Amino acid sequence: MNHRETTPVDEPADVHVGHIKTYAAGVPAVAVALRRGIEQMGTVRTARTLAKLNQRNGFDCPGCAWPETPGHRKHAEFCENGAKAVAEEATRRVVTPEFFAAHPLDDLRTRSGYWLSQQGRLTHPMYLAPGDTHYRPVSWDEANHIIADELRAMDHPDQAVFYTSGRTSNEAAFVYQLFARSLGTNNMPDCSNMCHESSGTALTEAIGIGKGSVSVPDLETADLIIVAGQNPGTNHPRMLSTLEKAKRGGAHIVAINPLPEAGLMRFKDPQRPSGVVGDGVRLADDFLQIRVGGDMALFRGICRMLLDDEDQSPGTVFDHDFLRDKCAGVQSYLDLLGAVDIDEILAATGLDHATIRDLATRVARSQRVVLCWAMGLTQQRHGVATIAEGVNMLLLRGMIGKPGAGVCPVRGHSNVQGDRTMGIYEKMPETFLAALDAEFGIASPRAHGHDTVAAIDAMVRGEVRVFMAMGGNFVAAAPDTRVTEAALARCRLTVQVSTKLNESHVATGTAALILPSLGRTDKDIVDGVAQQVSVEDSMSVVHLSRGSLTPSSPLLHSEVGIVCDLATATFGTDHPVDWTAMARDYDVIRDHISRVIPGFTDFNTRVRAKDGFVLPHPPRDSREFATGTGRANLAAHPLRWVPVPEGRLILQTLRSHDQYNTTVYGHDDRYRGIKGNRRVIMVHPDDIAAHGLTAGDHVDIVSEFAGPDGPEERRVTDFEVVAYDTPRGNAAGYYPETNPLVPLHLVAEESNTPVSKAVVIRLERTANAPD
Asked: Taking the domains of the chain in order of start, what are their residue ranges?
């Protein structure tokens, strides 16, 4: 049977620009969620599966990491994009060996990521031997021995790189890092390197822990919530329900973003009558349309105004007791504020003085302030300094370790925070490594390993023999796409543990393996016993996840099983780690975790509580700060922002509404009114005219940057110009289509995160563009 006839896929069409939405969710969101579910799963399977999503005794959403309200679950505890993610995973479509026999690799390389993902669930381990044109099926034993042979043939352990996606469970992440360290390497890049690494770096320096300090009840009781560089309507839609509750409780919400986003304008909760037949709830009281890269300047301008207010009315603005008893670097920072040039603040932000003054006044008068952010802040050259400046603002007011106040980095993937807690990090501290060694009788390496950018660099230099990815889509997530593809091609073997096809399966090493895994929705039965895994949400709550669907193939293995079986094939049965015991019973893994990682004491009992348990967070719990000074540190970074070069624009990459991370569900962006095709560049109408263009023109986008040997460029071709409400001098385009424009070495200082929100570009008419 022809696979393409059984799995219809609409490829991109012409771009149509329509009405921009002024609200999020509502009845259309419900309709889209149900339609996608029925298309992929069928009616009965859709009803049964969505009823288990984010419920106790159900499974955790494979999408975002937004937590549930403690002690309370709605009957429909999911959003439109969560339902899409589940539909993609629980689809009845399958990709069998017959599909690979019908599609040579050269054919698959011509397909879009959307087309690949729509083909369905992988069913068999598949192998691309050196010189082969097609993937062919192999047994699990054969696959494990192919990998083990390559690992044993390495000259040293650092010739292996082990990448991790944020959807990997705690248990799988723990055994994965244990395998890598038993092998002798800390080369463990993960998706956090490309997203929130700047958050973890800044928070660790400022308060001693790289995690947010607030809970859902804190947000619900705050009186000022600042949401900067984040689009919750698309990226974290369940956050809108929390913001709605905060709004009903009297919170003032400020949205700071280069583009107006529907989810922060108005929210129509489809589970409330007002969200079905009414106007819903206006969320953002103020929208500050800031220039790309101007957030640090905004926070510093606010802090300067707070200083002015404190000088005029001593003792009424700053929390002097907190600053004296709990903070370091206070005077150095206040000296820096005294030299702030407000005119530079206005130039950097694109905002007027009155707007910044109004927000500063609200910060000064509010008793419970929460600062939320996402990749709009982290993916800047000065992303770490930007977040540190936002934390400075909170510290001046004593807003850490106080109910209803604190920092809220909003994570993406559902367990990206948990993976880091489990040790997926190239620079884990000595305390963790020593505890791991004591528990298992191994000798973990101490030299720091490669993060994502460093791993690609090492592959480019030919220093990596084996690349293995536990989930995710490395090619589509990483910057500098063509360089990343060429880097993978230099590996002897690339291994992808996956549920569905994606671009990373066609960017191979000399040889390649695809290992099909169970997903969150699938039953995980080992020796007749149902297993369950755990995840950690954005607010440090650890809870269980239990799949309920029969797997699409009897050959699917769990991620835990894949790692443990590979470890046995690599090390043999006399290794000090009992891999077989962990593969057979995940409680064994959790017992090990309880003895290695602080906060997980009595893990197996506590995680079975109704809503799991909350990990300790010293700044939140007791205003204790595990920094070098033993205090919360105010950082005095030089002010940085992103000027627009003459005749150029500053590009930010972003998601469409029909997308989650690198997974594209369709070609439309309903909230922004752009339909039919994703190859668009959104530009202010005045900038379109200033560049001698008109809306609808087709252009090549060329990024410009300083390379090691002089000026360099990257190019993507044939994008349609769309007039959009962006700040002058700024532009926006969807990723991964625009990822080739982000050079590998354009990274944030300190965190090494790719700078996908501040790329200097020029626009050139596309040769032979359509009329």
From this structure: 26-89, 125-131+153-190+419-610, 197-409, 649-765
